[in-house]
């Protein structure tokens, strides 16, 4: 099983590169953002709860996210692996993911860290908001999301380094060049 955590600040290209990884390796993709947006769009109770957190630029509670991910993961039949896009975002979530996978006889194969400078992230996200109409891609919410990322999510880098799963990927350049670096990191496994 090839289980990948794709990591990086909002706007680092996780979704774009995840699509390419899924296509090349034939694994499933779990984007917590997509899952949550679908719940919000469908007006479920989970969606209403999640929307309250997202609108404030906050993270969804861990227990809620693990339950969602376990359900999605268990729905995949004959899977070659999964790419986790947007999860984990805290050390507590990383530990919960490790336990949830272990209960299924699996583990995280690698954590790919897409590293992008903050000014580039802001440019990308504002452009994305203009192109897609995503309401959370505005300057005020982006700044809040980046503060949350640096305070709560960035410490995961050291956690995955201690697990021996960390791979740094320079997230600036051509999409093809970044993907070539990702493939090289995966092929080393």
Contiguous helical run count: 9
For this structure, the CATH topology is: Rossmann fold
Order of helices and strands: EHEHHHEHEHHHEH
Distance between the termini: 11 Å
Query: Which residues sit in consecutive blocks of at least 5 with pLDDT less than 50?
Result: none
Cα Rg = 16 Å
What would you call the structural class?
Answer: alpha/beta
* CATH evolutionary superfamily: P-loop containing nucleotide triphosphate hydrolases
The CATH class, by name, is: Alpha Beta
Strand order of the largest sheet: 2-3-1-4-5
The overall pLDDT, averaged over residues, is 91
Helix content: 55-70%
Strand content: 5-15%
Shape: globular
Strands, total number:
5
CATH architecture: 3-Layer(aba) Sandwich
Model description:
The chain has nine helices and five strands. Helix 1 (14-25) packs across helix 9, helix 2 crosses helix 3 and helix 6 crosses helix 7 (139-153). The model has no long low-confidence stretch (mean pLDDT 91). The chain is α/β, with parallel strands linked by helices and 189 residues long. It has helices at residues 14-25, 32-41, 45-55, 62-75, 91-102, 118-132, 139-153, 156-162, 175-187, and strands at 2-7, 28-31, 81-85, 110-115, 166-170. It has a five-stranded parallel sheet, with helices on both faces. 29% of the residues are buried. It has a single domain (2-181), classed as Rossmann fold, CATH 3.40.50.
């Amino acid at each position: 099983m090839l289980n990948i955590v794709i990591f990086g600040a909002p706007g680092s290209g996780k979704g774009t590169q995840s699509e390419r990884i899924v296509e090349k390796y034939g694994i499933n993709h779990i984007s917590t953002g997509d899952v949550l947006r679908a719940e919000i769009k469908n007006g479920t109770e989970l969606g209403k709860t999640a929307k309250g957190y997202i609108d404030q630029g906050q993270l969804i509670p861990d227990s809620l996210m693990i339950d969602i991910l376990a359900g999605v993961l268990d729905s995949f039949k004959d899977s070659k692996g999964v790419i986790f896009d947007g999860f984990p975002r805290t050390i507590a979530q990383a530990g919960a993911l490790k336990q949830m996978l272990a209960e299924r006889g699996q583990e995280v194969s690698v954590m790919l860290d897409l590293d992008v400078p903050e000014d580039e992230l802001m440019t990308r996200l504002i452009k994305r908001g203009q192109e897609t109409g995503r309401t959370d891609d505005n300057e005020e919410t982006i700044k809040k999301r980046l503060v949350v990322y640096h305070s709560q999510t960035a410490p995961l880098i050291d956690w995955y380094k201690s697990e021996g799963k960390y791979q740094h990927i320079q997230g600036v350049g051509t999409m093809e060049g970044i993907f070539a670096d990702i493939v090289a990191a995966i092929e080393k496994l």
